[in-house]
Amino acid sequence: MELKRVVVTGLGALTPIGKTVPEYWEGLVNGVSGAAPMTRFDTEKFKTKFACEVKNFVAEDYLEKKEARKLDPFVQYALVSTEEAVKDAGLDFTKLNTNRIGVIWGAGIGGLKTFLDEIMTFAKGDGTPRLNPFFIPKMIIDIAPGHISMKYGLRGPNFSCVSACASSTNALIDAYTYIKLGRADMIVSGGSEAILNEAGIGGFNAMHALSTRNDDPKTASRPFDKDRDGFVAGEGAGTIILEELEHAKARGAKIYAEIVGGGMSADANHITAPHPEGLGAKLVMQSALDDAGMKTTDIDYINVHGTSTPLGDISETTAIVNLFGEHAYKLNISSTKSMTGHLLGAAGAIESIACILAIQNGIIPPTINHFTDDPAIDQKLNLTFNKAQKRDIKVALSNTFGFGGHNASVIFKKYED
Amino acid sequence: MSDIASRVKAIIVEKLGVDEGEVTPEASFTNDLGADSLDTVELIMEFEKEFNVAIPDDQAETISTVGQAITYLEKNVK
Question: What's the structural domain count of chain B?
């Protein structure tokens, strides 16, 4: 069977540092932090009082009021970033075979706000289950791709991937694989997450996973810095339209980049702690290289998972050095979570967009907030601290790792005919 | 218009996102006001909450227009 080539033909982003792709990219290259005091709820009794919120988001600016009311924020975000991507790709679905166009989406948690609100209402009652009929269909993770399919009439493969913070990378890999195998012409992929509420922050605080640098939110996400103290929770969505190359050419589509490989592995170690030597991280990057038929020396840039947690950053850099050897020191590496915070299930989507735009623009977005070197991190690595760097990038790899020990990596390549 | 009727209409306008003018006594939730089966369930629950009554399922099934809702509530709300 002849395998198809798969290209990126549309992008959409709704992030804490920009509500469109151009704004997001401008934020990335200028080292803008999206962190600020929490506005969504009263954090007085919470250990962490800040986050990377999507700023001034009003659902009714994008969606009809009646429609917005029935959607959890993680679905609202998905529809907003997808609308941008559909327009960006110049898609007129009336002229395409929509039975061959799918939606494969990622979210790690899904409708947590809906769940919280409904259960609070139930808890305040007398035990009678007076639950809203939209409770379940608002909350479930697969409802995001469901709504996207309904909005545009897309009748191809449709489901969600769930692997915590690797979710949207798994979605991209599935989308890429189905197109490569000839099962679809185009797949709307990406991910969204919206957990900035009492349950999300309280839950991650209980795990000691979040930074508590309340006196200086903007410098709290500081991957690889000696004084990093946890991740900064973020929210938002990213949409990537993947399309079979000949299909894209036939309709004269703009091609951003080619997706050439996806890797998957598990740590098989601990529910939340990474493998100390980064075994799963090393395996997943190798798996992506194998899928792409590439060598370590083909990679120019790695957008790391790099969440700014004490253990995770060490294990990932250790894995890079172990796998790439001497070439590790020739790579550009950066964690754009230093700016966006951690979008959990949407992280893979927006960080893949960062890779795609880095290839297109020849610019590596930085790891901001570097103040003090950490002796546990190999200082010969170019972690692109504090300022964007210019570089001609042919191939970029994006890593994402999720609680549960799920690892997923994806490789994008400059498009050449 | 009775107090109950105006409160019923306000709920329908809010939940179904329709104009007040469309909410006539004859208007059917599903055929005229764009409600689906889940919207209808939600409307009944909102009526129960607003008027502090329990509407049994077999009764709820007989309420499919604005007028039927108002009549039912006028009879059953104390």
Answer: 1
Yes or no: say if A152 and A98 are a contact pair by the CB < 8 Å rule.
yes
Look up the domain containing B20 and give its range.
2-76
How far is Cα A352 from Cα A150, in angstroms, rounded to an integer? 25
On whether the CB atoms of residues A364 and A304 are closer than 8 A, the answer is: no
Q: How far A142 CA lies from chain B's nearest CA (Å)?
A: 18
**pLDDT category, A128, cuts 50, 70, 90?**
confident
A69 to chain B, minimum CA–CA distance in Å?
Answer: 9
CATH number of the domain residue B12 falls in: 1.10.1200.10
Does residue B17 belong to the interface with chain A, where contact is any CB pair within 8 Å?
A: yes
Q: How confident is the model at residue B1 (pLDDT cuts 50, 70, 90)?
A: low
Q: Which residue of A has its CA nearest to B12?
A: A66
Is A137 near chain B, with CB under 8 Å?
A: yes
Q: Say whether residue B25 is in contact with chain A using an 8 A CB cutoff.
A: no
ipTM over 0.90: no
What letter does residue A402 receive in the DSSP assignment? E
Angle, helices A167-180/A347-361, rounded to nearest 10 degrees:
60
C-beta atoms of A133 and B42 within 8 A: yes
CB A377 within 8 Å of CB A359: no
pTM: 0.95
